[in-house]
Specification:
Blueprint: H1 17-26, H2 30-50, H3 54-80, E1 84-88, E2 102-105, E3 123-126, E4 132-135, E5 143-149, E6 152-158, E7 165-167
Antiparallel strand pairs: 1-2, 1-4, 3-5, 5-6, 6-7
Length: 169
């Protein structure tokens, strides 16, 4: 039985010398295989972390955009001294204009703000009221808006002093 002990030539003679050289020239070393496996593992991990639920990402984007729009309208209401309300479209069929998904009532028509969601499937509901009051007073009542997209939900809230901020219910 061949062994790999020093001085034992039986194991070395199993393959002719020319075949051993070819096998060494075309094969991979253990170190090369470990490096390739590590690169694949790191790549798979990064791809898994970078993939997010698309509904959740779009809902967060809608929330950030709506917060910015509400703060712009609130600032304009305070500067102009006018009463401004944000009104989401109700799905009860009362609003015949399906192109408008929400409105800013009371703002100047010279600088219109958007009236549509980035994703048309987004829905909004003002908690405890029909509209969100944005001005002209400096201190407003606490207000909350719930945004929904598919099975995801995001809540925007303001204590009346600070800006609207997103929170997970």
């Amino acid at each position: 039985m061949p062994t790999s002990a020093p001085g034992n030539n039986a194991a070395r003679g199993a393959l002719p010398r020319s075949l051993r050289r070819r096998a060494a020239a075309f094969g991979f070393t253990l170190l090369e295989l470990i490096i390739v496996v590590a690169i694949v593992a790191v790549s798979a991990g990064l791809i898994t972390l970078s993939l997010r639920d698309s509904h959740e990402a779009r809902l967060e984007e809608e929330g950030e955009r709506l917060s910015a729009l509400l703060e712009m309208a609130r600032a304009e209401a305070r500067v102009a001294g006018i009463s401004v309300h944000w009104v989401p479209r109700q799905d009860d069929g009362a609003d015949p204009d399906t192109a408008v998904q929400f409105r800013f009532v009371g703002l100047s028509a010279l600088q219109p703000l958007p009236t549509r969601w980035l994703d048309p499937a987004t829905r909004a509901q003002v908690v405890g009221a029909a509209t969100v009051v944005l001005g002209p007073e400096a201190i407003l009542p606490p207000q909350r808006i719930v945004l929904r997209l598919a099975d995801k939900r995001l809540e925007l809230a303001s204590d009346g002093l600070g800006p609207f901020a997103a929170s997970r219910p």
